């Protein structure tokens, strides 16, 4: 299933993020093959996912944002048993590990605010073993290149990707895809700068040290 997801990203590297019903309506006819679902409650989540799946989308639920459930591993069980979602995204190692155990695709989100959070990416990704990582904000091509060089896991750039130029810069830096809630970015089809399957280990012969002063 991971290979199929990466193939989807290779053909259209933009993932739509939706945070309300307006975004849901807009994304149904968009070219995006994958959607990050950033809202929903235990009452309507299954129906939202159904609409997206009926439109042929691959759906990832942000389990950190589901209303009505505590932010514990049971929310992953709920997504697996009560919806047709393909996977989840979360900033928590425990959520990612639970999703992998449930045979769901899992995307580990990282918020990079300083050099400490940057250096934690490799450590936490080794623990969670996600299918992909998402780096936020995604408008930092230099930092994206650092992470790509140190973590051999496909990287998605998300957050503050405001236009096609931002998207192209992220992919040139090594991201396999970008995610955005901005519908104007959803048509971005890639600039041929990145492939969905990066080398298994891109660290050889490369020294990453400038992050220490970030």
Topology record:
Elements: H1 2-11, E1 14-18, H2 21-27, E2 34-37, H3 45-54, E3 58-62, H4 74-82, E4 87-90, H5 93-101, E5 105-111, H6 115-128, E6 132-136, H7 141-150, E7 155-158, H8 164-172, E8 177-180
Parallel strand pairs: 1-2, 1-8, 2-3, 3-4, 4-5, 5-6, 6-7, 7-8
Helix pairs in contact: 5-6
Task: Give short descriptive properties of this protein.
36% helix, 8 helices, single chain, TIM Barrel, alpha/beta, 214 residues, globular, 18% strand
Spell out the helices and strands N to C.
HEHEHEHEHEHEHEHE
Q: What is the C-level CATH assignment?
A: Alpha Beta
Biggest beta-sheet profile:
8 strands, parallel, barrel
Number of strands: 8
CATH topology: TIM Barrel
> What percent of the residues sit in helical stretches (DSSP H or I)?
25-40%
Taking pLDDT < 50 over at least 5 consecutive residues as the criterion, the unreliable ranges are: 193-214
In DSSP terms, counting alpha (H) and pi (I) runs of 4 or more, how many helices?
8
- Name of the CATH superfamily: Aldolase class I
Distance between the termini: 36 Å
**Which strand order spans the largest sheet, edge to edge or round the barrel?**
1-2-3-4-5-6-7-8
Roughly what is the average pLDDT, rounded to an integer? 90
Strand content is 15-25%
What does this structure look like?
- This protein has an 8-stranded parallel barrel, surrounded by 8 helices.
- Helix content is about 35%, strand content about 20%.
- The chain has about 210 residues and is α/β, with parallel strands linked by helices.
- The longest helix has 14 residues, at about 115-130.
- It has 8 helices and 8 strands; from the N terminus they run H-E-H-E-H-E-H-E-H-E-H-E-H-E-H-E.
- It has a single domain (about 1-214), classed as Aldolase class I (TIM Barrel, Alpha-Beta Barrel), CATH 3.20.20.
